[in-house]
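Structure in, sequence out. Go:
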């Protein structure tokens, strides 16, 4: 995690100077049943996508949705088994911010989902040169907890999670 803070300190040199920007998906219409607290409905892929699509990229003033780092098709939710698997795709194969992006996704979901969910965040296979190492870091609960005890790193994660209006 110290590498992330080092990379953040060196923000003057962008790795992906001119990222491709994608069109946002159409906003989902929310039904009256979904707004009714007396009706229990399952958490689905689109609901998870809506929770994380506006996470900010650590390098650019764009969201993970706008950079196509996150897609609804790369989210698998099994509400009955309380499992959630998310794959994300860094914009470049050597993105030094991939661990921070994965950590931001994990933290956002840990903050908003019921505790019963087991959240698994991984880099999409074949999309990053250090995919195995980063996935190992993101899956290690103790490492994630230790990272979140680092006030500087937590500040960077929180900045990614601030929703822009």
């Amino acid at each position: 995690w110290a590498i992330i803070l080092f990379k953040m300190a060196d923000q003057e040199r962008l790795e992906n100077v001119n990222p491709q920007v994608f069109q946002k998906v159409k906003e989902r219409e929310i039904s009256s049943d979904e707004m009714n607290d007396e009706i229990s409905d399952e958490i689905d892929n689109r609901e998870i996508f809506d929770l994380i699509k506006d996470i900010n990229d650590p390098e650019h003033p764009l969201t993970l949705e706008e950079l196509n780092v996150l897609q609804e098709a790369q989210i698998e939710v099994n509400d009955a088994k309380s499992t959630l698997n998310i794959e994300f795709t860094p914009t470049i194969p050597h993105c030094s911010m991939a661990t921070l992006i994965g950590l931001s996704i994990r933290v956002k979901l840990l903050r908003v989902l019921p505790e019963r969910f087991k959240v698994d965040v991984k880099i999409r296979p074949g999309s990053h040169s250090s995919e195995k190492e980063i996935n190992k870091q993101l899956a290690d609960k103790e490492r994630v907890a230790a990272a979140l005890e680092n006030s500087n790193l937590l500040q960077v994660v929180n900045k990614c999670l601030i929703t822009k209006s």
